[in-house]
Amino acid sequence: MSHHDKDHVPMPLNTPAFSCTGCGAVALNADSLCQPAGRVRKSDWCGTESIDMPPFCLNDRHTLRYRCKKCGRISIDAPLLCEPEKVPVKE
Ligand SMILES: [Zn+2]
Ligand SMILES: [Zn+2]
């Protein structure tokens, strides 16, 4: 029925999250980000395609990340994205 990964359960659009001023990624916990900024909600980015950001954190504090195939958003937590795919880890 679904093409999603069997483990993937997207969170609702009103899920609160944090965004990173360093790399633009989002995460459920501010600790996951190199430069955590203000709170956002999933509806702030999901569904928009105007985001252009570095694919990796500027200071490489975290390496495992996901990109949304629909909107291009980078996230530390896959459930924050509607169609996450793993971003290859930089060597
Ligand atoms: Zn960052
Ligand atoms: Zn999305």
- Span of the ends, CA to CA: 36 Å
List segments where confidence is low: pLDDT < 50 over at least 5 consecutive residues: none
Q: Please identify the structural class as seen in this structure.
A: mainly beta
Backbone shape: globular
The level of helicity is: under 10%
Q: Which small molecules are bound?
A: zinc ion
Largest sheet: 3 strands, antiparallel
Strand order of the largest sheet: 2-1-3
**What pattern of helices and strands is seen along the backbone?**
EEEEEE
- Tally of structural domains: 1
Number of helices, where a helix is a run of at least 4 consecutive DSSP H or I residues:
0
> How large is the share of residues in beta strands?
25-35%
| Mean of pLDDT | 81
Indicate the radius of gyration in whole angstroms. Answer: 12 Å
How many β-strands, per DSSP?
6
Give a written overview of the molecule:
Strands 2-1-3 form a three-stranded antiparallel sheet, with no helix packed on it. β1 and β2 form a beta hairpin. The chain has one domain (16-87). The model has no long low-confidence stretch (mean pLDDT 81). The protein has 91 residues and is mainly beta. It has strands at 16-20, 26-27, 36-41, 65-68, 74-75, 84-87. The chain starts with 15 loop residues before the first strand and ends with a strand. The protein is built from no helices and six strands. It binds zinc ion (2 copies). One zinc ion binds at residues 46, 68, 70-71, 73, 81-82.
